[in-house]
Amino acid sequence: MDRRTLLGGAAAAFGLAACAQEAPAQPATPPDPENILVLQLPAGEVRIQLLPDLAPNHVERIKTLTRRGFYDNTPFHRVIEGFMAQGGDPTGTGTGGSNLPDLAAEFSPPSRARFLRGTVGAARSQNPNSANSQFFIMFAPNAGLDGQYTIWGRVISGMDAVDRIKRGVGQSGMVPQPPDRIRTARIAADIR
């Protein structure tokens, strides 16, 4: 199994047939721009609310790497219809990451945070404490991931652009050819 590949072949086991569910409702008050990740994708802009109350170390890592330009031009190397789109590996192989140390899991109780459509989680190997830079955005809910993978964000706008990310080949969804890429990633507070 690749060191940083999400779930190996578990996509089928955990419910590719899960019915679609909308992303969580937007909060009543606008989120702090310091906790909004803005991705420019080929199909448009995506805004992700970062959730430091659930995963403070993962959120800090995403902010650090984003501010370094780490995610700019990185591919979505694994995209599985009805499941998720995975990116954050500059090598595009599913085995790469940043030069920063891996992060310990920050699992929240399943009743508090769930993998719904638009949820953003930290990709990792079978070791729960191996997350680094890779992440995945859910196309559909998947309760089998609840309490197993760290949730650090949720899409609050632009899910239509996520839905249009080019799918990969076969059940593994590996490396769409050519893959869609994150054009730029910025923290909203830094955008002038």
TrEMBL record:
Q: Which PROSITE patterns match?
A: CSA_PPIASE_1, CSA_PPIASE_2, PROKAR_LIPOPROTEIN
Q: Residue limits of the PPIase cyclophilin-type domain?
A: 35-187
Q: Does the keyword field hold Isomerase?
A: yes
**Role summary:** PPIases accelerate the folding of proteins. It catalyzes the cis-trans isomerization of proline imidic peptide bonds in oligopeptides.
Known Pfam families for this protein? Pro_isomerase (PF00160)
Q: Which organism is it from?
A: Roseomonas fluvialis
In terms of Gene3D superfamilies, this protein maps to: Cyclophilin-like
EC top class named in words: isomerase
Which GO MF terms are attached to this record?
isomerase activity
Q: Which domain of life is it from?
A: Bacteria
Q: Which PANTHER family match?
A: PEPTIDYL-PROLYL CIS-TRANS ISOMERASE-RELATED (PTHR45625), PEPTIDYLPROLYL ISOMERASE DOMAIN AND WD REPEAT-CONTAINING PROTEIN 1 (PTHR45625:SF4)
Its family?
Belongs to the cyclophilin-type PPIase family.
- Enzyme nomenclature, EC number: 5.2.1.8
Signal peptide interval = 1-25
Spell out the protein name for this chain. Peptidyl-prolyl cis-trans isomerase
Which InterPro entries would you find in this protein's record?
Cyclophilin-like_dom_sf, Cyclophilin-type_PPIase_CS, Cyclophilin-type_PPIase_dom, Cyclophilin_A-like
This enzyme catalyses: [protein]-peptidylproline (omega=180) = [protein]-peptidylproline (omega=0)
